[in-house]
Structure formats: structure tokens, C-alpha cells
From TrEMBL:
This is BtrH N-terminal domain-containing protein. It comes from Halolamina litorea. Residues 154-328 form the DUF4872 domain. Residues 14-140 form the Butirosin biosynthesis protein H N-terminal domain. Coiled coil: none annotated. InterPro entries: BtrH_N, DUF4872. Pfam families: BtrH_N (PF14399), DUF4872 (PF16169). It comes from the Archaea.
Length: 337
């Protein structure tokens, strides 16, 4: 199997930020996973409504994180989507031949090695670091070790039309050198996180799908959650919500990871430490929400009051996040990114 020489796989909390950390480490750039997450734009909240179903699906990180990271740092790269499979395969394997590991954007529900369940809303990011005629070798930071995937399984995972359509998308570094000042990139990423959560329409990036975003979406999710106790079967929406909050076992809707971003990047941008501490507390409360949903899921006939109580908890989290992101916006300015 052809391999990218010298690539070191390390697991992480977030598939995209972990891929960025691993790829930039390969190019001898010094970025932690938390720094990658923050520079890329940090957490998000996108709520997807189903026109024919009485529940909602959501994701808790932005779809543009990987591209925004390279753009903010001025690292030359190529992003391609829409090629047919054979063309995309030839391009990706050519990059591997040149010892440049591409990041692929995949459907997690089509990846058998991930934990059972509905999977988070695509795309799921993983670097590809090897191939032969029949298979590829993936560096997926959401699992501890490299994963071999058949060429046909890759074909299935690399293209789908559910929620967020993807068609053979990949990103690859073309010149491993940053042209933008790191502190400016850090401030821009944190600034966008605040602007997006407070006023998502001010952010000139595309969530690639219908639905609310930012804190308005989080409040809508709380409203939906409070009504699930009236359903004859709440299993599907509850499990989807648990999966979204607990992607890859992170458990805190990535608020814990973003607290690390605020701590690390905040030192470079002059932020008060208490913002990171407050966000870490919010991460703990998200973990409590996940635990409440797990308890509801385990009950044969959960009471409506359990849903209402959990919905109130989520609404309180939304208030806390609004306060934190408002303070972050005041510290860094309110310019959209």
C-alpha cells in the first residue's frame, strides 16, 4: 500500500479539528486540536427540521471549520467537490503519491468502524494517508487507530444527499506555510464563533442546508424537546439528540473543547481567563443534559415532565451561552467573518 511517509495518527475529540491537528503536525506546524477548533470557528448549533417528521436533528460544530482554519492562517490549499468518484479518486491518490495527505468529507453513517447509532449530521472529516487498488487508509481522529476502508465503502461514504449533500469532497494543503499572523487568525476565529452564535445571519458562510442556526436554533431545540413527551414514541428524536450532544464520546456538545480554545487562544488575544472557565462549566451542563436524555431513553414510558425539565435545562444553557458569547464579542469586536 502506498503511504504518506512520516504521518503520525493521533486521536482527538472532534473529527475535523483532530484532522487539522494531525495534518498540520505532519507539516511541522505547531497547532493543538483546541487551537485548530478555535481558529476554525469553534462551536455551532444548526437545527435541521424534517418536513415530514415531528422531530429535529442538529449538529454542534460548523460545516466550514476546516476550510476556515486554512483561510484564516493563509495556508495555501485546494478544496474540491462535485467530481465523479473516479476523478476524485485519481486526484486524491495523486496527492498521496506526493506525500500530501488530503482531508476527506464523508457520511459517518456509512463508516462501519464508528460507534453504532444514527451518526452525526455529515460531513465527517478524516485524512487519507494510504491506498492501493482496493482500499484506502484513513486517519480518523475520532478513533484511536488508522482504519482501512475498501474502495467501494469509500465510494458509498464519500457521496450522499441526506441533510447536507456531499459529493466526493476533499481538501489538501498545497504549500505548508502560513502567510497570516497567528494571533490575528485566533482572534478572527473566536470573533466568528461569537458572532455566529449571537447573530448567525451576519456570518458570511454557508451551513449548506435548511434550518435555524446559532442560539436561536438552540432555543428552538429546547422548545421541541419540551414537546417530545406528548409523542407515543420519543425514542428516535431522543437518540438523535444524544448522538448530536455526544459525538465521538465528547459528551459536551464541544463546549468543553471550546473552553480549551478560549484558554489557549485567549492568552494570545488578551481575553480574561474567566470566559474559558465559564464555558467549561457550560460543557459540564451539556454533559448533564446528555445524561438526562440517556435516563429518558432507558425508561419504557418516560413522563412528559422529564422532557419539560430537560428542556428548561437546555434553555438555561442558552442563556448562559448568550452571556459568554456576548462578553467574547465585546472583547474582540462584533465584525462578522
Amino acid at each position: 500500500m502506498e503511504r504518506v511517509d512520516g504521518y503520525d495518527h493521533q486521536p482527538g475529540s472532534h473529527c475535523g479539528a483532530g484532522a487539522l491537528r494531525n495534518v498540520t503536525d505532519y507539516y511541522e506546524m505547531d497547532y493543538t486540536e483546541a487551537a485548530c477548533f478555535g481558529i476554525g470557528g469553534g462551536p455551532a448549533f444548526v437545527l435541521y427540521e424534517h418536513p415530514d417528521r415531528p422531530w429535529v436533528t442538529f449538529r454542534t460544530s460548523p460545516l466550514w471549520l476546516e476550510r476556515a482554519f486554512f483561510e484564516r492562517l493563509g495556508i495555501p490549499h485546494t478544496f474540491r467537490a462535485g467530481d465523479d468518484f473516479e476523478t476524485a479518486w485519481a486526484n486524491v491518490t495523486g496527492h498521496i503519491d506526493d506525500d500530501d495527505p488530503p482531508i476527506l468529507f464523508l457520511d459517518p453513517g456509512s463508516l462501519d468502524y464508528l460507534a453504532e447509532g444514527p451518526g452525526h449530521v455529515p460531513p465527517h472529516a478524516a485524512a487519507v494517508v494510504g491506498y492501493d487498488e482496493e482500499a484506502v487508509l484513513l486517519s480518523d481522529a475520532s478513533v484511536p487507530s488508522l482504519q482501512e476502508l475498501s474502495r467501494e465503502s469509500l465510494r458509498e461514504a464519500w457521496s450522499h444527499d441526506r441533510f447536507v449533500p456531499i459529493e466526493n469532497e476533499y481538501l489538501v494543503v498545497t504549500n505548508a506555510r502560513a502567510s497570516e499572523e497567528g494571533n490575528d487568525a485566533a482572534a478572527a476565529g473566536l470573533r466568528q464563533a461569537a458572532t455566529y452564535m449571537l447573530a448567525p445571519l451576519e456570518v458570511k458562510r454557508d451551513a449548506r442546508g435548511p434550518g435555524e442556526e446559532g442560539l436561536p436554533a438552540l432555543r428552538s431545540f429546547a422548545d421541541y424537546l419540551g414537546t417530545w413527551g406528548d409523542r407515543s414514541d420519543s425514542t428516535r428524536p431522543v437518540r438523535a439528540a444524544r448522538q448530536a450532544i455526544d459525538e465521538h464520546g465528547e459528551g459536551t456538545a464541544y463546549r468543553g473543547l471550546f473552553a480549551e480554545s478560549l484558554a489557549e487562544l485567549g492568552q494570545r488575544t488578551g481575553l480574561p481567563r474567566e470566559l474559558a472557565d465559564r464555558m467549561d462549566d457550560v460543557g459540564s451542563e451539556w454533559r448533564t443534559v446528555a445524561e438526562h436524555l440517556a435516563e429518558i431513553d432507558d425508561r419504557e414510558n418516560p413522563q412528559p415532565g422529564s422532557f419539560e425539565e430537560t428542556a428548561t435545562f437546555v434553555a438555561d444553557i442558552a442563556d448562559q451561552e448568550e452571556s459568554i458569547f456576548s462578553a467574547l464579542r465585546r472583547e474582540l469586536g462584533d465584525r462578522g467573518e
